[in-house]
Amino acid sequence: MSQTIGFRSPEQWEQVAKEHLDKGAFEYIQSGAGVEETLQANIEGFRRLKIVPRVLRDVSKVDVSKTILGTSTPVPFALAPVGFQTIIHQEGELAAAKAAAAHQVPFTVSTVSTSSLEEIAEVMGDALRFFQLYWPSDADIALSFVRRAERSGYSAIFVTVDTPMLGWREQDKQNQYFPLRDGQGLGNYLTDPVFNEKAKIISSVREKEVVTEVAARLFNPSLTWENLKWLRTKTNLPIVVKGIVHPADAKLAVDYGMDGIVVSNHGGRQLDGSISSIESLPIIVDAVKGQIEIIFDGGIRRGTDIIKALALGADSVLIGRLYAYGLIDGQEGVETVITQLKAELQTALALTGETELSYLQQIKLIKV
Ligand code: FNR
């Protein structure tokens, strides 16, 4: 491992990102929708939950490995889909994916990655990767993305369902900032034969027109469970529904034969005022009772946050902004974030009085 960056807390990473990025790019990453009630609740929800640790239990050896969607991984976290990563570092997703692969941490490629899913697969070798689908308004393009992910060694499709349209993001409106408009995040569309055919994109076309064609197809406000039922018949890859906070929806994911859910409010970027991720987790765990894999995201900044999410019944977690800030320093920065989070998690597990993550559900949490 090529780690030479010194220790940085999550708050320091955010500060470094703020100093290095343009206002528009930084606020696009950092901010949430509306008055950021949900963004803050995601973080504060963790701070209100307190671990009641056990002692004198021989914690000289701790094991933080886990199985994520059937594959064993050295840590219980994966990198969340974060689009447009070239706004953070010129190498974008390629740098983050290489960092993830170097530590056997699964990487989730966004539909709006700037490099194509094939290019990212190429730099990852055999390392575990997932593809996140923003279901386009055209089902043929959706299926084309899924086929490409199958061919390029992706192990699951994460369908993001909390984004029928973009949330009400006031900072971005004020900054008049959306990375797609500057030609970022087009990697998967530009290389898609079905999209190119449908949009009649020719190589000489001006970038502005491509952006307009992609923007017109990117989200699908008419998506329903019937679309997921259809996708279920089209692919054998595990399907994970990302963006569930209501227990009834978690139950529907089970009924529709989905393989997992991500309990998530999109990092507070979609419906402001919605329940924090960590508050919705126990309700969902209770509703699905082990029938489906539960991945959690939203507000994970610390090893102790991972302990709390797993203690409440999550099988694994995704980290979003934390590694996005690390990407300021390219591959090395993301590797540093991963290494620090793993080390912090090992310390937290031992100090909780446990040696394995699977025992965490016996640990008591209280809400203050
Ligand atoms: C995201 N997220 C996201 N989700 C998704 O399904 N597809 C995407 O392309 C993106 N893009 C994206 C960009 C940026 C800048 C951020 C911050 C987030 C949401 C992401 O996957 C995840 O749900 C949250 O980031 C989790 O919250 P934390 O860890 O950032 O608090």
From TrEMBL:
Q: Give the protein's cofactors.
A: FMN
Q: Which PROSITE patterns match?
A: FMN_HYDROXY_ACID_DH_1, FMN_HYDROXY_ACID_DH_2
Residues folding into a coiled coil are: none
| Catalytic class of the enzyme | oxidoreductase
Any Pfam family? FMN_dh
User: Which positions are catalytic residues?
Assistant: H266
Q: Which residues form the FMN hydroxy acid dehydrogenase domain?
A: 2-368
Recorded E.C. number(s)? 1.1.3.15
Q: Does the keyword Lipid biosynthesis apply?
A: no
Q: Where does FMN bind?
A: P81, V82, G83, S110, T160, K242, S264, D297, G298, G299, I300, R301, G320, R321
Q: Does the keyword ATP-binding apply?
A: no
Q: Which SUPFAM superfamilies match?
A: FMN-linked oxidoreductases
Can you name one GO molecular function term for this protein?
FMN binding
Kindly list the positions annotated as binding glyoxylate.
Y28, Q132, Y134, R169, H266, R269
* Catalytic reaction equation(s): mandelate + O2 = phenylglyoxylate + H2O2; 2-hydroxyoctanoate + O2 = 2-oxooctanoate + H2O2; 2-hydroxyoctadecanoate + O2 = 2-oxooctadecanoate + H2O2; a (2S)-2-hydroxycarboxylate + O2 = a 2-oxocarboxylate + H2O2
Q: Which UniProt keywords apply?
A: Flavoprotein, FMN, Oxidoreductase
Family according to the record: Belongs to the FMN-dependent alpha-hydroxy acid dehydrogenase family.
This one is known as: L-lactate oxidase
Higher taxonomy: Bacteria, Bacillati, Bacillota, Bacilli, Bacillales
